[in-house]
Amino acid sequence: MKTAIVTFVLSCLLSATYAQTDCRPYLPTTQGTTWEITNYSAKGKETGRITYELVDKVESGNEIIFSVKTVTYDKKDDEVFTSNYDAKCVDGKFEFDMAYKMDGSSMQAYQNMDFDMDATEFEIPTMDAAVGTTLPDGTLKVNISGPIGMHMTVDVTDRKIEAKESVTTPAGTFDCLVISQNVSTKMIVGIKGASKEWYAENIGMVRSESYNKSGKLMGYSELTKLDIK
Question: What is the mean pLDDT of the chain?
């Protein structure tokens, strides 16, 4: 009987360990790690930057929760917005909170206001996933009440794995999963477009490109700094 109990306990411990180590996140995994994404116009002119910090990582059973702080700066390098988002691995599946998609530069006027956010998950599969694989849509809704009310909705649809590529940025060279998607943003007016994003395991997004509804490149972003603790 004791042998059976010990075997059962060891089996549970091994299962939990496997679930955690099987997580292949698109984020740095060491608390305190910082990184930076710089935004550029289509012609390569810097338009702002966003700094990131992994402020917390909590492991519980088959789930790992990552908490990330972001600070957005404009083209004059003035701080305009600060926010947080979560990401998680559950049974080895990695997902961002769609709050990850909130454009801090467009939220500057609302920095000190209270707002409600409804965000779905934004799944990024492992590098083993096949090119052509379709992925679930994502939606972000933000509601702000007060003297300056605002309602914003971001819908990311028609997501799929387009390719697997090696990408070089000022922060290094990374093997990436390339995801394409359509993006619809409704704020004061509705804007439709598309984007491509390059993701590296244990790093995150290392490059993105934004296009208007006619397919013209409107801007791009690159990972420009990475300080792994």
Answer: 84
Among residues 210, 70, 195, which one has the least CA distance to residue 138?
A: 195
For 226, the enclosing helix (H) or strand (E) is strand 217-227
Considering all CA atoms of the chain, what is the largest pairwise distance in Å, rounded to the nearest integer? 71
The pTM for the full model equals 0.82
Report which residue type is found at 167: V
Task: Spell out the residues 6+ positions from residue 47 whose beta carbon is closer than 8 angstroms to its own.
Answer: 39, 40, 41, 74, 75, 219
Query: Does the pLDDT value for residue 3 go beyond 70?
Result: no
- The secondary element (H helix, E strand) that includes residue 19 is helix 2-21
Domain carrying residue 42: 2-227
Residue 219: closest CA among 77, 96, 43: 43
CATH of the domain at 146: 2.40.360.20
Give the total number of structural domains in the chain. Answer: 1
Question: Residue 160: in which H helix or E strand, if any?
Answer: strand 150-169
